[in-house]
């Protein structure tokens, strides 16, 4: 697995986050255990000190004597000495002994000190003071607040408390009780080992599961990669199977498939278009080449050469027209460069076109008339291209209208739209061809006397020009009666 | 040799027809697939030249339909499409050869000759019967080493007789292979041309090669 792969990154992130969470959680658990255990020990120490204080009170109250006897009483409590034989033990002492067993005081370290820190009585296992009191501790003690401290005694960890003991509610003594931390530390150590051992194991396991999971999750990506590498411009039929459960992947895969479909259809359109272009250009080339070949095969009469050259010239013209049309269409595909929009009166333009087309039509004996509104029709558009559009339409009408026919140009305003229609009394267009006449390279199958040379691009160019003006072009026609092309442009 | 040309581009059809006629072929032209199929069914052709891009029924369908109708005349396809799959499609539809536009006219002629040779199962362009020789490439005719000048129709007739040497050919067969659509079969044009041929080929060479089979037709043999 490569370092810069998503799989690797997701795994690292996954394990990293899991690791951090585990460490934080384990730390919290460890310390909460730590504090709980210490709190317990402190409570225990406190209650032990309290019991000792109570016992001292009881022992001293029993024999109302002066303070000289106080120490010997205390010794009885702390060191448990001077119990000559079990028969002489009074019930109080008996009770205390039982309590000492219960509280497990024999293993603890007990010390009775004056407030100045001088030890009065200490248990046998204690050779020196548990801890010395600094001034703040003394202040606390004077206010009756016990002081706790961790310390080492003979390399042994001890938790100790200094407990303020007011003898007969006036004289302040300090009872220090210390207990071994060994069992507590043992528990904490065990817990720490468990935690330290379990984190790597958990991380390792989740890394393995993560790998399987991430690989499954990213399977569509591999599918897409495989499919994408299969796709070439010759073969766009490959699709990714969309059987993935994850919604996002479903969207991704279907978006990918849709993209390929769109590419396929546009590739097909381009391929169809270029084969049409090839056909449109190859036909005149075939004629030029064929005519030349035949003319040069042997000596011929002057008229035959003239005829061949005339044909060649005609076909050259046809090729030029196709190429010009194609260049025009290419320009129209990027309208911003080719177009120069301005506001002008369409009536002026149509009148100019009318004058021009009258001259063109008169050769064929076709009558052209114009019927436009008296008021100016202002539109926003490119004069040159709109001129080309209307001349194209009129040119077509002249081409397909017989001698003595009529062509009529009508311009009106209708619902915020300027509507120009050009009608002729020509041969008309068959119903099944009407939807296709604006397609590039569409030729109506006409043979015999109706065959009119055409590039098949004129109406396609007209439609592109209308589209760029946000307009609309439509055609109605009837075979033998004529056609009407209607152009609607937005008025201003 | 009679050829059917199915081509919708008038100018393309025009020059191919002229060029083939100059090479002593008899040519009929159909402007669309339907008409082409009709002509191929009613007439007997030695070769069909078929354009792929036709209005209405396209060339590939025409080719398939001709083959389905058991018309096994060699078909040479013409097209502007030059992708491999177009060629494969055309050849799989039953065409025998494929030529892309624009083409050199000499290549078209060479392919026509090759297809006709294959159809007649011959390898040489020279036809020979006894001491009479006809060269299909140069269109020269010799008998006993002496060149004989023939008109186009005479040449077509002699070529057909020589291709079927030692076999009887009927007047119908001659009309089908030597004349084109505009031929009127009720005239005695065939007999007239046979007589022209006889006077040029047999007269003054001793043995007669063209024999009349009364009531049936003619045979060319030693």
From TrEMBL, chain A:
GO molecular function: phosphorelay sensor kinase activity
Keywords: Kinase, Membrane, Phosphoprotein, Transferase, Transmembrane, Transmembrane helix, Two-component regulatory system
EC code(s) of this entry: 2.7.13.3
Domain of life assignment: Bacteria
Transmembrane segments: 12-31
GO terms under cellular component: membrane
SMART domains for this protein: HAMP, HATPase_c, HisKA
Cross-referenced Gene3D superfamilies: 1.10.287.130, 6.10.340.10, Histidine kinase-like ATPase, C-terminal domain
Source organism: candidate division WOR-1 bacterium DG_54_3
Subcellular localization, as worded in the UniProt entry: Membrane
Classification via InterPro entries: HAMP_dom, HATPase_C_sf, HATPase_dom, His_kinase_dom, HisK_dim/P_dom, HisK_dim/P_sf, Sensor_HK_Regulatory, Sig_transdc_His_kin-like_C
Protein name: histidine kinase
Enzyme class: transferase
Main location per the UniProt record: membrane
Histidine kinase domain mapped to chain residues: 276-492
Domain HAMP, residue spans: 215-268
CDD domains linked: HAMP, HisKA
Reaction it catalyzes: ATP + protein L-histidine = ADP + protein N-phospho-L-histidine
Automatic annotation (TrEMBL), chain B:
Molecular function in Gene Ontology: phosphorelay response regulator activity; transcription cis-regulatory region binding
InterPro entries in the cross-refs: CheY-like_superfamily (IPR011006), OmpR/PhoB-type_DNA-bd (IPR001867), Sig_transdc_resp-reg_C-effctor (IPR016032), Sig_transdc_resp-reg_receiver (IPR001789), WalR-like (IPR039420), WH-like_DNA-bd_sf (IPR036388)
Residue span(s) of domain Response regulatory: 2-116
Residue ranges of the annotated DNA-binding region, renumbered to this chain: 124-222
Gene Ontology CC: cytosol; protein-DNA complex
Domain OmpR/PhoB-type: 124-222
A UniProt-annotated Pfam family: Response_reg
Domain of life: Bacteria
Chain positions with 4-aspartylphosphate modification: 51
GO biological process: regulation of DNA-templated transcription
SUPFAM superfamilies associated with the record: C-terminal effector domain of the bipartite response regulators, CheY-like
Keywords: DNA-binding, Phosphoprotein, Transcription, Transcription regulation, Two-component regulatory system
Record-given protein name: Transcriptional regulator
Taxonomy of the source species: Bacteria, Bacillati, Saganbacteria
